[in-house]
Amino acid sequence: MSYRICSLLLLLLATPLGLVAAEAPADPLNSVMWHEMHQRLLDGAPVVFDERVQVSAPAVAEDSLNLPLWIDATALGEVERLLVFAELNPIPKVLDMQPLKAAPRIGLRIKVQQATPVRAAALTPDGVWHLGGVLVDAAGGGCTAPSIGSGSSDWADRLGEVTARLWSREHHSRLRASIVHPMDTGLVAGIPAFYLEQLEIRESGGDLISRLSLFEPIAENPVLTLDLPKLKQLTMDGRDNNGNPVAAQISLESQTGGGHQ
Question: What does the pLDDT read at residue 151?
């Protein structure tokens, strides 16, 4: 038996069935980091670039600390996860959403360190990631700048405070929530990473609507916009990476505030 055949057999025996990494398709944005992102963030799973995954952002980030994004993968139908990442950030991963009963659609603001592809990857039940993305130019420095709010004397008293609005649209309810938090990346000397880590949105009866994992590049005092099933009341609960809680009850067409105790 030849050395090449022996090597191939050893590779197959060492690789669990079904876990052979898929080859990454050619990147329409020509990013130097694309193949690494495919392996690191998408575990080498099957990927297609898909125009149905829409990423809307300014072509130029006027403020590298606050780049607005609108992600919409509803055209795919059922989506199990929605992953947002900025490839050339020192911390690429931005958000990992399990839509569950919510639409696979979200608005948020992020920090960018330099010009970068910003992508959304939507995982469908067949195990395929569908990718959309845009190139964003930026002067840079968003991830290595200290938060502004943490310099205020009252920020600790308001940590975790939620201001939110829930209103009815034709076929769904829309939630927009702002949460007081410095979202420090840990990349500034002497300032450790300090960021919101998890949020869960539930119906008033306790049923889970959507789960969000958040990461350091989300902008300070995050503002999130989500489209949910028709409902009159919900709760938002979560925590940051230091265990500080976030908790709020939000009613239809009302402004609601809440913070950690």
Answer: 67
